[in-house]
Amino acid sequence: xxxxxxxxxxxxxxxxxxxxxxxxxxxxxxxxxxxxxxxxxxxxxxxxxxxxxxxxxxxxxxxxxxxxxxxxxxxxxxxxxxxxxxxxxxxxxxxxxxxxxxxxxxxxxxxxxxxxxxxxxxxxxxxxxxxxxxxxxxxxxxxxxxxxxxxxxxxxxxxxxxxxxxxxxxxxxxxxxxxxxxxxxxxxxxxxxxxxxxxxxxxxxxxxxxxx
Length: 212
Hints:
- This protein is an alpha+beta fold.
- Strands 1, 2, 3, 4, 5, 6, 7 and 8 form an 8-stranded mixed β-sheet that branches.
- The model is unreliable at 193-212 (pLDDT under 50).
- It starts with a strand and ends in a 25-residue tail after the last strand.
- It has one domain (3-187): 3-Layer(aba) Sandwich (Aminopeptidase).
- The protein is built from 7 helices and 8 strands, in the order βαααββααβαβαβββ.
């Protein structure tokens, strides 16, 4: 299965793909309780981070555009997206507070040392269980081995089994207020046995490290 780096012209496709995959999850329902608004809000908010990843990270797509990874190079602190507060308000409307709360909860768990942040790994719902996620994770592992840095991600609880096959270890779960449980996971570099966990915010606090 061919995997390629995404281009700027792919950003809307990638945002829609991630929103479609996230849409049926309990996390999406918690973020945007109104099902009629959910897909549009998710697409708009995710689109902010997809653009940001094209500047401060990387995005890889399968050649059929059915699966994608989005990651950030947190080798040093990176800025938030330009005009983020205004853009989040425009994108999320009355749901912006939920995205802010999610960000606040997750930011206390993020590593402080240089690392790679796997923000999203998603497969389109009608294309799952056909090897696309495995292909992307194999590609992802190969790249991590070359840079030899720790990696970090957060996923809905219950989906840890696939990532553990690629070197990720579950961390203590996070339960959102009146919401679903999430599972941070880390992958150590070959030079380190542990990833320090932060108790304060990074410069670029964000919600976008979730994927179904």
